[in-house]
Amino acid sequence: MATIFPRDRFASLLGGAADAGSFSARRTARPDDLRLEVTDIGPITLPVSVRQAKELCLIGRPARFGKGEQTLLDAKVRDTWQVPKSRVKIDKRRWNVTLRHVLERLRADLGLPEGCELTAEFHAMLVYAPGQFFAPHQDSEKADGMIGTLVVTLPSAATGGVLVVEHAGQTATYRSSKESLSFVAFYADCRHHVRPVTSGYRVVLTYNLLLKGDSVAAAAGRTDPRLTAELAECLNQHFGDSDEPARLVYLLDHEYTQRGLGWARLKGDDASRAALVRAAALAADCEVALALAEVHEQWIAEDAEPNGRYWDDDDGDETEEDGDYELQELIESTTSLDCWLDEGDEATPTSLIVYDDEVCATTPTADLSPHASSYEGYLGNYGNTLERWYRRAAIVVWPRRWAFAIRAQASPMWALDRLADLVRAGDVAEARDAAAMLAPFWSVVAKANAEQMLGKALTVAHDLDEPGTAAMLLTPFQIEMLGRSHAAALARVAVRYGDSWTRELVDVWFGRDRPAYLASQQQRAVWLESLPAVCDALCETPEDGVSVGRLLSAAAWTPLRESVDRTLRYPAPSHRHAALSELGPAVAGLLLSTANLAAADLRDEMVAFLSVDNDDLLVCAMSALRAAHTASRATRAAAGLDVVSRHCAARLATRLARPIRSADDWSIELPAGCHCELCQTLDAFLTDKARRSFEWPLAEQRRRHVHARIDQHELPVRHQTRRSGRPYTLVLTKTEALFAREREARQRDQTDLAWLDRTSDAR
Ligand SMILES: O=C(O)CCC(=O)C(=O)O
Ligand SMILES: [Fe+2]
Fold it and tell me: Tell me, what's the pLDDT at 164?
């Protein structure tokens, strides 16, 4: 026998409990209850005559429909006449009594508890001539408190024009009456359509349905104590006595927009179920929140027989959105929650993924209509897959003893605020205990908004006065998030917990254990450029910010030097130089930081690294000097940049002192790399001053090796293959670029040297 999990029993008890309200309902009234006049036409007689209906069409305008924020006109979606509102006059005295009466019954039909009230706000008068219709759609919530739509159909001899309303896989159809006024109400999350009118004219008044009063509070008065106790028992079993924080997420049946979500405004059965869940939670010492859920399901699906009809019959039990596939097996479902409202409707920004073993629902998600879907067709291992996204509302329940952990998972920022509040109130011990509860999940949840949380986290970590918990709180962050605004808090926390604690933290922030791709080179470089400002701020803190700054810069140097070393090994000179030049500002940032911090050891190490005789490194050094140029002369000197500048100048001068290549010197240097017999032949040709071209019979593989060597190092040599004879002949020709490049290099050196002369006073 399959086990029934407590959470499933919970959902099924709730399913049986509700008053079985419907998502739509109909009531009727006598035609004399409506006295309606339209300007220029006069009183409308009921049943509506064809003559008056035609007159209404003549003064009508094509009706628009809402799509997102827009209202559109498209006769393929909505084809009906709308009579201008200003022309419609209804005798209110009589009509309001009828409406109140009808709405009171519809309230009950729709499963809304006594004690709350439905009111209707006139929206539009519509006339459907033969052939006119309105394709499937969902009404937008046009006002706060709007929970549905009321359609009042005037009696007429029309046929067709059936109103079809769908919700959670169920369909209701409403034909208009020849004699009575018909009132159809449905919730705003129902898809509905009007089928084409086949003969005569269909005339309706549409209303926005508003809910007055608190639907959940009204239902609360009528909850069955026995059922509440059973539900509470399910909660106790679900949570058991384990120490792991857990939730129960009960998915409701109706859809809500962010604007429309609120405890007081739950629709239909959701209201009475929510009242029960709240009562059971209270009995089981749990807390609750209302949330919006996005459910993503992935199914294995199979192509189905196409049925080819546009207007589906209502009695078919398959209500697939387009009927061309059938669901076979659920591969995966993920539920994420946002927009968390506690019992007082107070909102907490949330972004939380919940696990399947904490989710339950009375109506399975697959019975609802997805707001998006994509059919992948055949996909490797799985065959055809279908992905669907649904929006549902959810009630989240958790034991009060885990309140802090559960809320912290939903909103880490809230957790930090709460810890700060506790500290401020003098409850440091309680704050410490609460913070310790975050340990199992903090590194995962804090990553989401880490950037905005670092400042608060530093302060809280300091105030807890507990090194282990403080380190746990700070571990999820990355060095690139640290800005000058964090300096004071960082210095304070470092002084409080000491050197080796800080060193450990800084290492983690630099991603010692983090895959390299997580912090891109680019982000790191930008951060290094900002490091002097961070160090400035650190130096200004009353605490010992300088030693933190030294720790940071020392930790930054190792990976930066490795980047430079890696870049030096790029074979193509153009890439190598571009990348080395890009690293210059980061190198400058770090060097300037050493000046602020008087970190002479690190400075000397960096200066020595930059001052070796290497033409490639010169590119990086020049770029660093240019980037640091805006710093004051004293700072540049303290950063050792004057030494770097002198080294570059000397190296440039040496290079410029070399004789200019004579016009008949065609020798080219082949960079080291390969010593194979082909490369030796190639080298002999390249270094030969006199030879410009070389005809070299070579088989394909061997030709390819030679090509690769030439291209890899961007040598000024053209390679062509003459496709005659066997093997083909590789024709190598040294190009004029050899001379052009040398001229350009010399010019660049001159410019650089002149710039150094202008900008340095030390020479
Ligand atoms: O004409 C009807 O019955 C429904 C009209 C409608 O769906 C709307 O105005 O949004
Ligand atoms: Fe509608």
Answer: 97
Half-sphere CA count of 110, side-chain side, radius 13 A: 36
Cα of 135 to ligand 2 centre, how many Å?
Answer: 9
Q: So what's the pLDDT on residue 314?
A: 40
Residue with tokens 């998915």: 251
Residue 482's nearest CA partner among 493, 468, 497, 469 is 493
pLDDT of res. 113: 85
Indicate the class that CATH gives domain 677-736: alpha beta
Residues with CB under 5 A from ligand 2 (ion): 139
pLDDT of the residue at 20: 67
Atom of ligand 1 nearest to the CA of 192: 7
d(CA 13, CA 79): 44
Tell me which ligand sits closest to the C-alpha of residue 184.
1
Handedness of CA 751, 755, 756, 762 (dihedral sign): positive
Q: How far is the CA of 137 from the centre of ligand 2 (A)?
A: 6
22-110+117-208 to CATH, choices 3.40.50, 1.10.1060, 1.10.530, 2.60.120: 2.60.120
Report how far ligand 1's centroid is from the alpha carbon of 125 (Å). 10
Pocket lined around ligand 1, Cβ cut-off 6 Å = 126, 134, 139, 151, 163, 192, 194, 204, 206
- Say which ligand is closest to the CA of 190: 2
Report DSSP state, residue 358.
Answer: G
Pocket test for ligand 1, best of 192, 195, 197, 202 (most atoms within 8 A of CB): 192
ipTM exceeds 0.90: yes
85 CA from centroid of ligand 1 (Å): 15
Ligand in closest contact with the CA of 151:
1
Residue 163 CA, closest ligand 1 atom number: 3
What is the enclosing helix (H) or strand (E) of 756?
helix 737-759
Residues 6+ apart with CB under 8 A from 427: none
275, 115 in Cβ contact below 8 A? no
Low-confidence ranges of the chain (pLDDT < 70): 1-2, 18-20, 68, 304-324, 377-383, 512-519, 761-763
Domain ranges of the chain: 22-110+117-208, 217-311+319-402, 478-657, 677-736
Distance, CA 366 to ligand 2 centroid (Å)? 24
Q: State the Cα–Cα distance between residues 24 and 147, nearest whole angstrom.
A: 12
The reported pLDDT for the residue numbered 142 is: 76
CA dist., res. 432 & res. 466, Å (int): 8
Residue 49 is classified by DSSP as: P
Q: For tokens 């996204």, what's the residue?
A: 389
What is the enclosing helix (H) or strand (E) of 146?
strand 146-153
Q: 347 — phi, psi (to 5°)?
A: -95, 140
Token pair 């089928």 is found at 195
C-alpha 740/C-alpha 747 separation (Å) is 11
Ligand nearest to the CA of 80: 1
Give, for ligand 1, the residue of 149, 193, 201 to mutate: max count of ligand atoms closer than 8 Å to Cβ.
149
Please provide residue 750's backbone torsions phi and psi, each rounded to the nearest 5 degrees: -65, -45
